[in-house]
Write a structure and sequence with these properties.
- The chain contains 5 helices and 11 strands.
- By secondary structure, the chain is of the alpha+beta class.
- A hairpin with a 2-residue loop joins strand 9 and strand 10.
- The longest helix is centred in the middle third of the chain and has 17 residues.
Length: about 200
């Protein structure tokens, strides 16, 4: 194995996106995945990009949404993301409380277009819900199909020069309480000197 800058262990959505972003910055990246890309939780979870309702974290949400929209635009069509949010209903059995919540959120996060929905509007929006709920509707929530997104990040990482090794189990190699490199499932040890 030639010298690499970064070893990423795990081909889930985090590992694949990290490999793609690191490779974009010109680093030599190897991504080790014991089974197959997205074989663990990333292939089966419920993915969604949702505004955090926090002004400190909002820029991270916007950056993430932008990255996923670009991922969909630059890909091969196997991963799609709608620019329009699906919407989020904050349900309440107390209509006055739901109206007050919409007012508070309108002042705090106007970009989410908070609006009050009475019980009839909620029933029309979500007919499968039990009757009697009022809600505050927010313009947030972008469903992300996790398996497709994971594979899209993996393909982007490879296009950017990362080396993807499926079927290659790996773990951090710690020696004297310091990172020494990566130990592969086949017994091969890749020292820190070859990770730089």
């Amino acid at each position: 194995m030639s010298a690499i800058d970064v070893a990423v262990i795990g081909g889930g959505i985090i590992g694949c996106s990290a490999a793609a972003m690191l490779a974009e910055r010109g680093l030599r990246v190897v991504l080790f995945e014991a089974a197959a890309v997205g074989a663990g939780a990333s292939g089966r979870n419920l993915g969604v990009l949702q505004h955090p309702f926090d002004p400190v974290l909002a820029p991270l949400f916007h950056d993430s949404l932008d990255r996923y929209l670009r991922l969909a635009a630059e890909g091969d069509g196997d991963f799609e993301l709608d620019r329009r949010p699906a919407g989020l209903l904050l349900l309440n059995t107390d209509a006055d409380a739901a109206r007050a919540q919409a007012d508070r959120l309108r002042a705090a996060v106007p970009e989410l277009e908070p609006r009050f929905l009475d019980a009839d509007a909620v029933a029309e929006a979500e007919p499968s819900l039990a009757a009697g709920f009022a809600a505050c509707r927010l313009a947030t929530g972008h469903p992300v199909p996790p398996a497709a997104a994971t594979w899209a990040w993996a393909r982007l990482a490879v296009r950017r020069g990362a080396d993807l090794r499926e079927g290659a189990a790996a773990e951090p190699w710690i020696s004297v309480r310091a990172m020494a490199g990566v130990r592969l499932g086949n017994g091969e040890a890749v020292g820190r000197d070859r990770l730089a």
